[in-house]
Specification:
2 copies of one chain form a homodimer. By secondary structure, chain A is an alpha+beta fold. Chain A has 5 helices and 8 strands; from the N terminus they run E-H-E-E-H-E-H-E-H-E-E-H-E. An 8-stranded antiparallel beta sheet of chain A has the order 2-3-1-4-8-5-7-6.
């Protein structure tokens, strides 16, 4: 069931009067040649290899980032969804992508760094052992140095954008070995004026 | 395990230079006397009777609503979370609230109406029959007249704010009878300039 093909849908929310230009500019700037992509009223949908999808979301967040603008990006990221309900219909086939190619945006965003606050929840579906799996995921965030604290219904992370995305790439790779349909619900926040 | 006590955490994102005043003004305006409440950098947490929690979120969205501002509110809403990880520590006891009291904000927000776009996903945990349960929830959205369409990983709703919240109150009541830990991940969007 789990084949390393991930789907995500996300919404950018720049809290600025310039939000239209920031969102549309970032979305258009992302190289989506290796993924399926669709943008509509309820956000943007990507589907492809896990590393390509995470690369595209990281690029979109990075291109939307403005040092003076508080912004959130809320995202649903999943693998192993049974049936057709998680697919999007496009002319791009994700299977034609060789598994060892570097993600399309990697070189261009490698030098972009900024601090990110993040909260996430992990939902491994269809298994009575989901609590243990959630605890394993939280443990990995501690090991990788991005854990900040727990809050009701979520785990809070803090770190450079690169370290936060490295964590999600690593933890999804780990989740794939469980061979269940799983979902990560993630909210990134940058430049919040609120105190820690 | 399921006792009608719900927890939620949410973040408002008004896409306006005036976002601080809009968020803090709305959060402060909500009557939280019947729920536990905490606001921090990663959003606001409420806990209490399901009807009281939904009433408080609806009030917060309604007070933040500005006819000229595009805004999203993303929320995690759950019941039956095992252990203490979904609780918040406050001095308010949710158990002292009589179950037949009207929600605290109901009278004040009854006359506030505006159209809402909404997407949601339902996650019933720990059960192999989760797909059927998700399909039941989507069917109820059709019966109640708020279903718009499906998108990858989510169901899209459309309707007046009152009808959308009526749906979540009704569908959570239904979910409680399944007696499993369940989560609704919901994003409300108002005044989007994007076409349908």
């Amino acid at each position: 069931m789990i084949n390393g093909i991930a789907g995500c849908q996300f919404m950018l929310a720049p809290m600025s009067d310039r939000y239209v230009d920031i969102i549309l500019g970032a979305v258009a700037h992302v190289d989506t040649s290796r993924i399926e992509s669709r943008t509509g009223k309820m956000g943007t949908v990507y589907r492809g290899r896990r590393a390509d999808v995470l690369d595209a979301v990281k690029a979109c967040l990075s291109y939307a980032y403005q040092p003076d603008v508080h912004m959130t990006l809320s995202m649903t990221l999943s693998e192993g969804c049974p049936g057709a309900s998680c697919d999007i219909q496009t002319s791009v086939s994700v299977n034609k992508t060789a598994s060892d190619e570097r993600p399309a945006n990697e070189a261009q965003i490698a030098s972009i760094h900024f601090p990110v606050d993040c909260k996430f929840a992990y939902y491994p579906m269809g298994t009575p052992h989901y609590i243990e799996k959630i605890e394993d995921v939280i443990a990995l965030s501690r090991t990788m140095g991005v854990f900040k604290e727990t809050m009701p219904q979520a785990t809070v992370l803090k770190g450079d954008v690169a370290n936060i995305f490295d964590f999600f790439n690593k933890v999804m790779e780990k989740s794939e070995t469980d061979d269940v349909h799983f979902i990560y619900e993630i909210t990134f926040s940058v430049n919040s004026p609120s105190a820690d």
